[in-house]
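Kindly draft a sequence, keeping tokens residue-aligned:
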Amino acid sequence: MLTLDRLRRAHSFLAHHALYPVLLSSALAATLFAGRIYLSRTITFAFLGWNLILAWVPYLLSLWADQLQRRYPRYWWGLFVPGALWLAFLPNAAYIVTDLGHLAERPPVPFWYDIGMLATFALTGLFLAVLSLRVMQRIVRHYTGSIVSWLFVLVVTGLSGLGVYLGRFLRWNSWDLLLNPRNVLADVAVRLADPLAYRQTFGVTFLFGALLFVSYLALTAREPA
């Protein structure tokens, strides 16, 4: 009975955080990719699988943070590690949208098939980003209130837009923030110091930050964060 009760609680927790829909979306993406391999006998878009795995990381980190906060609500400092890791990996979820830039006619696979496959990966990444941000906003709101939690959302989506730029155009990875922070921050500082010379930086940051923010509003409009 104890095991059954634990399974029920785990199911309730995971269902509350929409695990099953994002698993289904990920399975659809993987199935479409497998179908493409069958049709083309190539693994042209193999990078999509790795990018999807990275998109899952912030979602799983947010579940870890949620469990810690619920079990030990007074020990807010214990959320620093999962929160910092979550913020570092969150841009990977929105990053998949930029993979749409790889669209091109690649016979024998129909163009429409690749559109649908890439769109499925991109939407799955956005779903994972939104769900993880919803969890983290709830935690922030628990400690600081609603207004600060929405400021948190604005800042995080902006930083995620910057992360997309750093990943797509400067080829930095999330773990470079740990392994090579000086050079990452140096690249950011150069662009902040002379914004007119790096218009692309601010354009990409704003575009993808705004996309994530609007997606968040649209997908969480009728439910609490």
About this structure: DSSP finds ten helices and no strands in the chain.
